[in-house]
């Protein structure tokens, strides 16, 4: 990238662009070198560090975990979707259930009258 292009893009003067790029190179935030005669920034290819590779692996595994959890949740929505419904042989078939006759809500209504 040329200094002039960066200067126009970020609306900064040339000495400020040069200063910022130099600081980034010194702090190893930018793997590049400055070519003074052509006023360009020469980018260098670098491999990710071990820590960066581990962070990428962790991010991929967490993404897989989230996808699997969503898949399991969706499956349970299909089977557990009737948890509180009036289902014959359902999970709460002999408990009266929240929405069944004789359930908690029904008892609450009767006691208020």
From TrEMBL:
Listed GO MF terms: RNA binding; translation initiation factor activity; translation initiation factor binding
GO cellular component, one term: eukaryotic translation initiation factor 3 complex
Region feature Disordered, mapped onto this chain: 77-113
Sequence ranges of Basic and acidic residues compositional bias: 85-95
Domain EIF3CL-like C-terminal: 52-76
Record InterPro entries: EIF3C, EIF3CL_C, PCI_dom, WH_DNA-bd_sf
Pfam families: EIF3CL_C, PCI
Domain PCI: 6-45
Signal sequence region: none
Xref: SUPFAM superfamilies: Winged helix' DNA-binding domain
Protein name, entry field: Uncharacterized protein
Species name: Micrurus carvalhoi
């Amino acid at each position: 990238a040329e200094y002039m292009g960066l200067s126009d893009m970020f609306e900064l003067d040339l000495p400020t662009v040069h200063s910022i790029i130099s600081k980034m190179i010194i702090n190893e935030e930018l793997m590049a070198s400055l070519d003074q005669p052509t006023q360009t920034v020469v980018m260098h290819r670098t491999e990710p560090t071990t820590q960066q590779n581990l962070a990428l692996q962790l991010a991929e595994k967490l993404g897989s975990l989230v996808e699997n959890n969503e898949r399991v949740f969706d499956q349970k929505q299909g089977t557990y979707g009737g948890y509180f419904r009036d289902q014959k042989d359902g999970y709460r078939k002999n408990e009266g259930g929240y929405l069944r006759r004789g359930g908690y809500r029904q008892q609450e209504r009767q006691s208020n009258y």
